[in-house]
Give the backbone structure.
Amino acid sequence: KAGVTQTPRYLIKTRGQQVTLSCSPISGHRSVSWYQQTPGQGLQFLFEYFSETQRNKGNFPGRFSGRQFSNSRSEMNVSTLELGDSALYLCASSFLSGGANEQFFGPGTRLTVL
Amino acid sequence: KQEVTQIPAALSVPEGENLVLNCSFTDSAIYNLQWFRQDPGKGLTSLLLIQSSQREQTSGRLNASLDKSSGRSTLYIAASQPGDSATYLCAVKSGGGADGLTFGKGTHLIIQP
């Protein structure tokens, strides 16, 4: 069974630009969560999508948004990029939303903002 | 607000030793706790998942325990190997499940050949 895939793996953008990251969950998984990982803050929860609806959201500004498609694939968008947005963005999928479901992570997208 | 702490932050041991990594959390109302491994620049690999009603889980040379009432978990690695070198992360899914996983900062483990 294929794992979680994320594209692209690496991105370089400049301040003020916007970026879209993509995540394809494990086949049959309907929940997709996004996390930001930085050396200073560690791993922080961004948001979760289930059945094309945002279920939960972490403490990030409105510049961070996402969506989920009917095939459970998800995209994350960051507008008006800032230097501090440079991070590894990780996507995780699980069979269902919430509760006691195990999460499986993709390889991440490394975003560098210059 | 749930907070997760991992001790030690870094650990270096010779190959073959058994070792214990520690994780503590402030709110005992959790659904589950997961241990992950992360290699440099890579994503997270799930090692063990312990549901809130369980006391421990085992996979090969790994054993994870959970004491929910005291807010602690340990990851025991038996007969360590150089390939075990990585950062080990502990994460909890809190009650209500509203906020995704809350992660500790990790333990950076080096196994010396």
Q: What stands out?
A: Residues 9 and 109 of chain A are 4 Å apart (CA to CA). The first strand of chain A starts at residue 5 and ends at 7. The mean pLDDT of chain A is 94.
